[in-house]
Design goal:
The chain is an alpha+beta fold. The chain is built from two helices and seven strands, in the order H-E-E-E-E-E-E-E-H. Helices cover 26% and strands 28% of the residues. A hairpin with a 6-residue loop joins strand 1 and strand 2.
Length: 123
């Protein structure tokens, strides 16, 4: 085995280790949820029909579901019936984005609502 081949293998290994470390750093960091996020219990056991907090709802055509590791998952792969989630809705009240929560995120509660005060305008 030549020295150049060994160095090439080691450099590839270092690059892969660096990429893996950045993924683990992102997973370990707290996820940021939008201030308009709501919490609910999602039932995907009868997909494509979904139930949120006991009510039949629709997923938007462009909806995205994020796993606990913040990776996008396909709706058909979820089969649970009591998944605690944060979600947002689009203008048609369809479910737009869904984040499956970890136990620590469940304990934290909902994100703080946007509490910007309006400023009076003097004429």
């Amino acid at each position: 085995m030549s020295i150049a081949r060994i160095f090439r293998g080691l450099s590839i290994l270092l690059v892969l280790a660096g990429l893996t470390a950045s993924v683990f750093a992102q997973v370990a960091a707290d996820r940021q949820f939008p201030p308009n996020a709501k919490r609910g219990i999602l039932d995907m056991s009868n997909y494509p029909n979904v139930t949120l907090d006991g009510y039949s709802r629709r997923l938007a055509p462009s909806s995205r579901i994020f796993s606990v590791t913040n990776l996008i998952v396909m709706p058909s792969t979820l089969s649970g019936n009591n998944i605690v989630v944060h979600y947002t809705e689009n203008g048609f009240k369809d479910i737009d984005k869904v984040w499956i929560l970890t136990q620590s995120e469940i304990a934290k509660g909902l994100p703080a609502a946007n509490t910007q005060a309006t400023m009076p305008i003097a004429n």
